[in-house]
Amino acid sequence: MSLRTLVFSAVILALLALGGTLALAPWNGAPPIHAQVPIAPVATAPPAEVERMVPQTDPQIRLSFAPVVQAVSPSVVNVYATRIEQQVVSPFASDPFFSRFFGDRYFQTRPRESRSLGSGVIVDASGVILTNSHVITGATDIRIALSDGREYAVDLVVEDQQTDLAVLRVRNAEATAFPAITFADSDALLVGDLVLAIGNPFGVGQTVTSGIVSALARTGVEASDYEFFIQTDAAINPGNSGGALVDLSGDLVGINTAIYSQTGGSVGIGFAIPANMARLVAEAGVSGGEIVRPWFGAKMQAVTADIAASLGMAAPHGAMITEVAPGGPAERAGFQSGDVILSVDGLRIDDPSGFNFRLATRPIGQPADLERLRGGASETIAFPVEAAPQPPAEAVAAIAGNTRFAGVTVRELDPALSEAKGLPYDAKGVIVTAIEPGSAAEAMGLRVDDIILALNDNDITSARSFQQIASQRVRTWQIILQRNGRVSRSIVSG
After folding, report:
1. Is residue 49 included in any domain, yes or no?
2. Domain interval for residue 451
3. Is residue 241 among the annotated active site residues?
4. How confident is the model at residue 111 (pLDDT cuts 50, 70, 90)?
């Protein structure tokens, strides 16, 4: 045996003693031959093989959303709203030259009937339906159609533009039991949960689409006071508004209300009002009462990255108090400017919109646990949830009689009302709350939410002072009012 052979054999024996896999290449250039050598056992067991099997039964083969749809679809209705609008019939109405110099008042108009469609959800067996406010606003006649083809006339019970929700009730339906849906706890939703959207897109009839929860607590979607939308990629199109967003248990998790689209059709970004907010409006409609919401009594801003760093927060979130209403619930509970509210009843707060939504869904008269950050330390405050105070009788004035302001109702500004209207807490004047159609006040051009500051050089500080001055007969009125944040002066004949 040659020396080369002895050395090679010694190397092979050493490797075999250590354990391993050795690739041996014959000297003639043939492909390597792999010799498997046992490896010392390790502590971990090999992963269990995933069991795969061919479906054996009909239920296994027919995995489907059909059982959920069959259970829920009878609770979803089509909503048809009829409106009477004034249509300009002059051939010059669309001409910018004539419109600029003459305006619409010189063109003849005629009433025109228009119809809109949407969807709704039956929330009570007595015939109470929840839909979007924008579906029925201004309607003179509203009807619904069930999935089985039955149609009913309905009455408007509650219209809540703050949440873009409305409650309808079937007319003369005492002997009929309707299939009502069950509400889910929308706070239990997670991004990625499967959901179904049911409604009447484009008026083609009841349609079901599926998707997932794409995001939660979306804001900046539409002009409502409680923006906290569920985002879904289930296809939602015009006509789906007011329809149901349900989970796989068939429970209502949201009311479909808006889409993001540059074409008018679904691009996979739809939004729904969470069920926990919708339930409050529905309960008001079922009971026939009014919607009473909590009032915190403070203005807030989002916590930016710079603010979070200055407060020693690991990441920016929460709602920072910037101003507290004098004598309001927040002041009485010890909150002050600079405090950051991090959670409500253990639910994280990301921004002021999230706080407003969470507080609005808490029952009046019960405490809510607010986690507050102050001076780098957090603590939980039991905050008594209460409604905004109602104005006393003397804070409201309705003008009647032979006067230019006949038909207007005004109310004194207070901290709660000022906050709701986006005004400073110490705002002065009276705000227009109602105007009778066809009244002298309407003809004069007053609008709801106008703030009347002065009449004929007399400052308006109360409803009583406004009533005393507005009831006078004078030749001309000099009116200083604030509208949409701008102060203007106008002169109107008496």
Report:
1. no
2. 393-493
3. yes
4. low
> Is 53 among the domain residues?
no
Percent of the chain, pLDDT > 90?
61
The enclosing domain of 424 has a CATH number of 2.30.42.10
pLDDT of residue 99: 53
Helix axes 275-287, 352-360, angle to 10 degrees: 40
What average pLDDT score do residues 302-318 get?
A: 93
- Is 81 within a domain? yes
Shared domain check, 254 and 321: no
CB atoms within 10 A of CB 253: 26
- The per-residue pLDDT for 105 is 52
Q: What is the pLDDT of residues 236-255, one digit of tens each?
A: 988 999 999 999 999 999 99
CA distance 494 to 63: 74
Domains contained in the chain, number: 4
- Six-digit token string for 38: 């046992």
Q: Which of 119, 224, 241, 418 is catalytic?
A: 241
The answer to whether residues 378 and 415 belong to one domain is: no
Domain final residue pick, 384, 414, 435: 384
What CA–CA distance (Å, rounded) separates 349 from 459? 42
User: 101 pLDDT exceeds 90?
Assistant: no
Residue 136 and residue 277 in one domain: yes
Residue in 75, 116, 134, 233 annotated catalytic: 134
Given the residues 124, 160, 164, 450, the one annotated as active site: 164
Question: Are 262 and 324 in the same domain?
Answer: no
Residue 43 domain flag: no
